[in-house]
């Protein structure tokens, strides 16, 4: 999918730019934040003016990342209109926040690995076979013959560890391990990353109790799901960002092909996290419901109460995989 000429074009566009605004998706994760801060770090070395904007700011567990304190969280703090906009780890303007469509007329560079991305930019470097956007940036920095130092290596390590579940998911390729070996040799602070990314709050673990209690099957036992309502979030005092990772529990069940976790982000509006085993392609399921992602991990936001959302989800899974679906428990 990606070829070397795309990488060269992206490299040239970044080199020509003077003032850049770096953006990624809302509900930021290790890959988006690690990638944003890695690219910022290298562009600063190249003498560029760089701003990084993250809707809602950097979640606590990522504050250790070098440069996290420079991230702009409110649109009012952005300086004048940027000359070049870089969108990382995201392929849709709606997922950037910030009413970012207004940047669509500017020179836009898009670097992403989501299967559903079509390229937002004038130049795009897209590779859905890459485990993380951080891996694409590693290739870019190798092309520039950039020196790795502990700060840069820690950002890239966070990006790759985040999207591979610390090197456990099926996207953990030989390239992932080869690149990671170089990052560790350059001083990536692996233990620091693990401690921060895996740390959970009291309220997260208490809410997990309810998530496990509510585990139920669907799609004739081929799927498992759980959910939290807005009232549950209020009761446990957790944010949507704090609920990150709950989808991994239905995913753990042996024999389950599709795992879903639904969280009510607004009244009767659920953010859905999907995980799968072969052959189910959840990026196609999510795309049918207006979202996107990867074959084994995808997401979308749908309207309705939990039963209505599950019906929509089952219908989409049925359409994509021809698994006959019905609600069960
Ligand atoms: P999550 O379940 O939030 O960890 O997301 C799993 C994967 O799906 C990530 O790679 C996300 O970037 C992607 N994803 C989640 N929600 C959406 C959405 N609404 N549109 C496109 N991609 C999404
Ligand atoms: Mn991401
Ligand atoms: Mn990613």
Question: What features would you describe in this structure?
Answer:
With 329 residues, the chain is an alpha/beta fold. The chain has 2 domains: 194 residues, Alpha-Beta Complex (inorganic pyrophosphatase (n-terminal core)); 122 residues, Diaminopimelate Epimerase, Chain A, domain 1. Helix content is 37%, strand content 18%. It has 11 helices and 11 strands. It has a 6-stranded mixed sheet, with helices on both faces. A 5-stranded parallel sheet has the order 2-1-3-4-5. Strand 1, helix 2 and strand 2 form a beta-alpha-beta unit. Helix 3 runs antiparallel to helix 4 and helix 10 packs across helix 11. The termini are far apart. Bound molecules: adenosine monophosphate and manganese (II) ion (2 copies). The site of adenosine monophosphate has 13 residues, from strand 10 and strand 11.
Number of strands: 11
**Amount of helix:** 25-40%
Structure class:
alpha/beta
CATH superfamily of the largest domain: inorganic pyrophosphatase (n-terminal core)
What is the terminal separation in angstroms? Answer: 41 Å
User: Would you state the CATH class of the largest domain?
Assistant: Alpha Beta
Strand content: 15-25%
CATH topology of the largest domain: inorganic pyrophosphatase (n-terminal core)
Let me know the average pLDDT.
Answer: 93
Tally of discrete structural domains: 2
Task: Report the total helices.
Answer: 11
């Amino acid at each position: 999918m990606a070829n070397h000429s795309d990488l060269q074009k992206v490299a040239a566009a970044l080199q020509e730019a003077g003032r850049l605004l770096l953006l990624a998706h809302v509900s930021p994760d290790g890959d988006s934040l690690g990638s944003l801060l890695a690219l910022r770090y290298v562009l600063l070395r190249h003498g560029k003016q760089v701003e990084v904007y993250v809707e809602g700011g950097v979640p606590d567990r990522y504050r250790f990342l070098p440069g996290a304190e420079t991230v702009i969280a409110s649109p009012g703090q952005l300086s004048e209109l940027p000359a070049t906009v870089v969108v990382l780890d995201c392929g849709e303007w709606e997922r950037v926040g910030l009413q970012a469509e207004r940047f669509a007329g500017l020179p836009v560079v898009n670097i992403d690995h989501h299967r559903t991305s079509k390229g937002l930019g004038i130049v795009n470097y897209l590779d859905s076979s890459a485990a993380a956007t951080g891996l694409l940036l590693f290739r870019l920095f190798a092309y520039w013959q950039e020196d790795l130092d502990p700060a840069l290596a820690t950002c890239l390590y966070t990006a790759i560890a985040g999207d591979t579940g610390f090197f456990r998911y099926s996207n953990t390729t030989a390239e992932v391990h080869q690149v990671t070996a170089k990052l560790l040799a350059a001083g990536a602070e692996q233990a620091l990353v693990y401690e921060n990314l895996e740390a959970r709050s009291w309220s997260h673990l208490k809410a997990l109790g309810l998530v496990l209690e509510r585990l139920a099957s669907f799609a004739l036992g081929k799927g498992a799901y759980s959910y939290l309502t807005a009232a549950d979030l209020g009761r446990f005092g957790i944010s949507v960002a704090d609920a990150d990772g709950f989808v991994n529990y239905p995913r753990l069940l042996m024999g389950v092909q599709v795992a879903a976790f639904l969280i009510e982000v607004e009244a009767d509006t659920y953010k859905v996290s999907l995980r799968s085993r072969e052959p189910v392609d959840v990026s196609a399921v999510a795309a049918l419901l207006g979202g996107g992602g990867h074959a084994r991990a995808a997401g979308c936001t749908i309207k309705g109460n939990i039963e209505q959302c599950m019906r929509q989800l089952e219908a989409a899974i049925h359409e994509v995989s021809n698994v006959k679906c019905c609600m069960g428990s």
